[in-house]
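Curious: why these numbers?
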Amino acid sequence: MIQGEIWNIYFDPIKGNEQGGNRPAVVISGNTLNKNLGVVIVCPITSSVHNYEGNPVLKPSKENGLQ
């Protein structure tokens, strides 16, 4: 897994109100960490837009490959 890639991840088990199941996620950990420790840090992403303060919104573009 390479930093910046988007993978379909199965998030389970969950705690509290966390979203579970299969979800797209972006790899945010660095490539050296991923390779040397075998640990990958990901952040789930969604197409559902909510007006929560501080939530970044990525708009589809050719550069990011989102549709």
In short: Residues 31-37 form the longest helix (7 residues). The domain at 1-67 is CATH 2.30.30.110 (SH3 type barrels.). The mean pLDDT is 87. The chain has one domain: 1-67.
